[in-house]
């Protein structure tokens, strides 16, 4: 089945360019366009896309607020959110992560990366490029590292699972985690799966946020 995509950007030329490319790709069905965040929320409810490719800065309702609405608990349909960003305002990126975005793509990325990103988030995975991960870690490193009351969910993790959480927060891939822990990649994936389940996290993006917010990966690491 094709991946149903909604494009949300306040610039018509951007939407047109994205659509012209995606319409030529097998397995992608662009079901609609939205010109601002409010329009994206309305159109997503009508069209029920699998993925919303959304600009982060738009009028009426920005991408952060729109992502929060689209991923709010209790919605009849929850699409995956792929944020388009020029990445010059880190606070927007941090806010979008907390709002439930599943991936980030820089606007100057090559076209094949857009296709790859849509496929990754549609499959239920998270897309955090090394650049995004580094900037996210820098954002957390600039914040106070003292956590008043860490989540009790941390107690459910084994020492090895806690290690995996720290390595995810550092931006390591599954292969790099396996190498760091001297285990197979399959074993690393298994550990990661258990961490996601125990912490009730949707993807590794949420694990990064959880780790830094709860002092598991102290600022500066």
TrEMBL record:
Please, which domain of life does this record's source organism belong to?
A: Bacteria
Q: Which InterPro entries match?
A: CheY-like_superfamily, NreC/VraR/RcsB-like_REC, Sig_transdc_resp-reg_receiver, Tscrpt_reg_LuxR_C, WalR-like
Q: Which keywords describe this protein according to UniProt?
A: DNA-binding, Phosphoprotein, Transcription, Transcription regulation
Instruction: Please list the residues that carry the modification 4-aspartylphosphate.
Output: 55
Recorded GO terms, molecular function? Answer: DNA binding
Residue span(s) of domain HTH luxR-type: 150-215
* Keyword Phosphoprotein assigned: yes
Q: Which residues form the Response regulatory domain?
A: 4-122
Query: In its keyword annotation, does this UniProt entry include Oxidoreductase?
Result: no
Which terms under GO biological process does the entry name?
phosphorelay signal transduction system; regulation of DNA-templated transcription
Q: Spell out the PANTHER family in the cross-references.
A: TRANSCRIPTIONAL REGULATORY PROTEIN NARL-RELATED, TWO-COMPONENT RESPONSE REGULATOR
Protein name per the record: DNA-binding response regulator
Record organism = Paractinoplanes toevensis
